[in-house]
Every structure is written in structure tokens, then in C-alpha cells.
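Methods — Computational structure assignment.
A single polypeptide chain was analysed. Its primary sequence is given first, followed by the predicted tertiary structure written as C-alpha cells.
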Amino acid sequence: MTRRFHHIACAEDTLAATFDSAPGTTALLIVSGGNEIRSGAHGGMAQLASRIAAQGFPVLRYDRRGIGESTGENQGFLNSAAEISAAAEFLRLEEKAQNIVAFGNCDAATALALFGPAAGIDGYILANPWVIETERTSDTQEPTISSGAIRARYWDRIRNPRSVIDLLTGKIDIKKLLKGLRQAARSEDNGALSLQLRDALSTLENSADILLAKRDTTARAFLAAWNSADFTAVRGKASIKVETLDSASHSFADRDAKQWLTDRILQALRSA
């Protein structure tokens, strides 16, 4: 395996990218979530790329425009179609990839579902897709978490005997608990982003594996939407598979979660 640095043209800007070479013709494209640089939190994506390349699959990862070493303005994941297309084109034209499987976590998963088809992605690994709406004020951006996700979190706490002890000994804030229970009790419709993701998933022609750390807040919010009536038709698609890991690690950071994620990515690459 050889690790090389590249600059990829993207409109009038340049994406900083890292390519791990391998003999295979099916490549993995890693799309970073949030405002993370391409190495990932604590180097997690760089380590993942090494593990995948060691199994014979080349891997490309890049910084979104305006992040890390890439030029341009950071316009967020909902405006990242050009970056995904530029990276996929680089893999096909410069590295001669015949098939491209793309992996993204959090809002990168949502971005791939929205923009992957136009980029010609052949397969999808979507981890903890982001469906949480945000409410903007002049100087803050607070996420609005679905009542379904809140209910799941409180159900886990209720089942934990330690929570009863914490409540009796005053370690749990009663006011916060009551506020959370009121939020959990409210009924609500899926937000615009959830429905946008639903529509994107419904039109995917290639296979998609949705991977969820089921005790992660982002994954719980997605599951609340996924299990709603709005997603009934999408749940019936044979090309979409949902798998869950009993973990609260959003980035699959612990040893067992890393191995679980790696195994499922390799499975998708070998099936492409």
C-alpha cells in the first residue's frame, strides 16, 4: 500500500485528498461528516483507510471545500454535491476504479444519499444518517431532536437500575427529567430533512447498507424517522439493509465498533 496526497479540482476550488493505493478495481470513497478533516477524529478515518487498503481495496478521502487543506468556502453538507462528484470522477479517471462504494457517517451519510446517484456511486454505506433539524438564532445553532429519539434514550435509562439509585440520591436533575419527559410525550411529524432523505433513499438504484450505533442520539433520531409511516415504502426496498450495533459510539471509536464497521465495509466492497 502506498499513501499519496492529491489536489482535486472542484469547480473553482481545490480539494485536498489522500489516496491509499491497492490492487483492486473497486474503490472506497470516504466522505467526512460534520466539519471533520479527512483524517477523522483521532485519525479514525486514516486508520480505517489503512485497514481497507490492506485488504486490497484502494481508498480516497478528502477535505470538503473550506475545511482542512481544501480551498473555498464551507457551505455545509447540503451543498456538497460538487465535492462528491469531483472525488468520484478522480477515482474513475485518475485511479481507474471500475466500481465506487462510498462511506459516510452522520451528515456525510445523508449527503451521499442525496448526491451520490448524480456522482455515479455504485454502492452506499450510510452510518448514523443525520436527520436532526436545526433551529438558528443570531449566535447559536441548537439541534431539534425528535421525540422518538428522546423516548428511546429515556427507555434505556429507565431499564438501568443505576438510574433509580441516581434519582433517589439526587444525582438526576428533576427539572431536566420532567422537561425531557414532556418532549418525549409530544407527537410530531417528520421534518423536512427526514423527508428529503426518505425521497433520496426511495430512488436509490444501487444497494445501500445503513449502519447504526443504536444508542447514539443521531442513530436514534434516524430510527424514529425510519420506523414512522412516512418511511413505509422505503423500508420495503430489498436493496436497503439496516444493521445495528449495541453501542453509543457515534464514530465507532472503540475496538469492537471499529472491527464491526470494518467488517461491514469490506463485505459491501466484496459484494459490489
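Note: The first helix runs from residue 44 to 54.
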